[in-house]
Design goal:
16% strand, single chain, alpha/beta, 2 domains, 15 strands, 382 residues
Length: 382
């Protein structure tokens, strides 16, 4: 089979890129030839004899413009070479050409419901920042346009692959037929994210000898729900919190200060050493208001951490009561406080939950995910 993957990047370093990387590797392992339309690709794939990399350059100032240039160039190439391809795998509205399988990591129509302009009441009424206002406005426009473009892409695809039941539900809401939807969950690198000794907390200037939770995500957005976590933390005085995420333009350092907990909230900024950092914390808290999947959740589980999340995250069904705590309402500060307190005071429970979380993660490796994609593609070409 001659497979074509259309993606911005085919590398291990990000969620969507990692999915496509693993799919390409599995395709090669099965003897298929892979054409990759991408701006970036891992060197080992670019040099492989079964891979034809078609570089798509899109060097323009904003992400919206880059995506439009990429879509234009990739669709032009596909129109000229479609007869050489057996199956096209795309992601959302990444290209204007029709795809056979469209893998959906999120539905912009659902993101629009949780855009910063519509969730202002959570924190922005009390803390105004012009940078945040501009960023939120841009995000809203970007999401609005993608809502229209990706619906056209889904309607033209033969199969639409959702990364979670949550995304499948979102697809049905925009009238994608149930018979066209297939769910294949994201995977996790269980070697990179694994239990073990992460060394001293002092490496990150974090306190030793105290219960330490971790939160990771884009903390410029209310959707990630760090505000509720901070408010709950006020009522759990023995717990410290390590926060991973870009702090420029974020209102949450100021919120922590106003709540009187800045001495227990440790903002670490953007980090590339998250696998090591996860090894030195006690549990992971991530009650996002909306999350199509939440790769960071299964990464925490693979590390052997109990997870506190909310039912509106796509990865929530993976978390059994023996592996963590799933809140029915992400904005229920009292319930979140109780969950955080429960894990803070009970190290034996944390250990048991973490062990079960690891066992669940082992069933969702990148290899298992890639095999499901290739099984689907081969079935489509019969």
């Amino acid at each position: 089979m001659k497979l074509c993957i259309v993606t911005h990047s085919l590398i291990k370093g990000d969620g969507q890129g990692r999915v496509n990387y693993e799919v390409a590797c599995e395709a090669i392992r099965r003897g298929h030839h892979v054409t990759v339309l991408a701006s970036k690709i891992s060197p080992e794939l670019a040099e492989h004899s079964f891979v034809n990399w078609v570089p798509i350059s899109a060097k323009v100032p904003t992400e919206l413009m880059r995506n439009m240039v990429f879509a234009f160039k990739s669709s032009n190439w596909l129109r000229k070479h479609r007869h050489q391809i057996d199956l096209i795998k795309a992601n959302g509205a990444i290209t204007w050409a029709k795809s056979d399988a469209n893998a959906v990591h999120f539905v912009h129509n659902s993101w629009l419901k949780f855009s910063s302009l519509e969730t202002t009441s959570f924190n922005q009424k009390t803390i105004f920042n012009p940078y945040i206002a501009l960023y939120n406005s841009y995000q809203w426009l970007y999401t609005k346009l993608n809502t229209h473009w990706e619906k056209q892409a889904f309607d033209s695809a033969k199969v639409v692959v959702a990364v979670s039941d949550k995304v499948a539900e979102d697809l049905r809401e925009i009238n994608v037929p149930q018979e066209a939807i297939k769910v294949i969950s994201n995977g996790v690198d269980v070697e990179e994210f694994s239990p073990g000794n992460g060394g001293s907390r002092q490496t990150w200037n974090l306190p030793e000898g105290v219960p330490l939770a971790m939160f990771a995500g884009d903390i410029r957005l209310p959707r990630k729900n760090l505000d509720t976590v901070l408010k709950a933390l006020v009522e759990v005085p023995d717990l410290h919190l390590a926060v991973v995420g870009v702090t420029d333009g974020s209102p949450y350092p100021q919120l922590a200060k106003s709540l009187g907990i800045s001495d227990r909230v440790h903002f670490l900024g953007f980090r590339r050493d998250v696998p090591s950092l996860m090894k030195i914390v006690d549990f992971f808290v991530f009650p996002s208001r909306y999350e199509p999947f939440g790769l960071v959740i299964i990464e925490a589980m693979a590390t052997g951490l109990p997870v506190i999340t909310a039912s509106c995250t796509g990865a929530a069904p993976l978390i059994t009561p023996e592996a963590g705590i799933v809140l029915s309402d992400p904005n229920d500060s009292k319930a979140l406080t109780e969950a955080m307190q429960k894990l803070t005071v009970n190290p034996d429970l944390r250990t048991k939950m973490g062990r079960t979380a690891r066992e669940i993660a082992l069933q969702h490796t990148w290899k298992n995910m890639a095999q499901q994609y290739l099984d689907l593609f081969e079935e489509m070409k019969k």
